[in-house]
Fold:
Amino acid sequence: MYKYKIYNRLSTSLTKIIDEDTNDYIGYIQKNYSNIFTRSIDLIGDGKFFNSFKVYNKNKDLVFISKQRNPFKFRNFIINFYKENNESISLNIVDKHWFKLSEKTKFTFLNKDYELHKNMGEWAYIINIETNQRVARWKNPLTSPLSNYFELLDESLEEYKLLFLGIFHTYLYGE
Structure:
């Protein structure tokens, strides 16, 4: 299981992602603003308007970038993930629901369809739709500072753990 703490929603400093079993760093996550104007607007909104993030591996190499297309509409993100061989994977995550009654969204990754499910106050899961297998889970308890927990459940996707962590954080953290 991995853990990282967010002390301030507006901070752009690197936050360490720690493997709780070994206490080793597996990477870093960072809030990202495209310019000072967006950061100023987010200050007014207590850090909830702009949810763009970067994730770095343990060597501080950039591996994940999420960009929110429009902060005033549905959750709509462009995500880029960079593998070790410099191969880039891009995907879109869009919440098509008008209200937050349903916390589900679908996306395609490596030619497979996945669905992100959020359960109020419980673990959120990413599920392979074809096999109905849970591949990753994430939780954000309502304590301060916010401790976020992530666990990859499908070991065959190990090289994508920072991608799944980034997807959860991007989609659910700023709600």
Remarks:
- The mean pLDDT is 84.
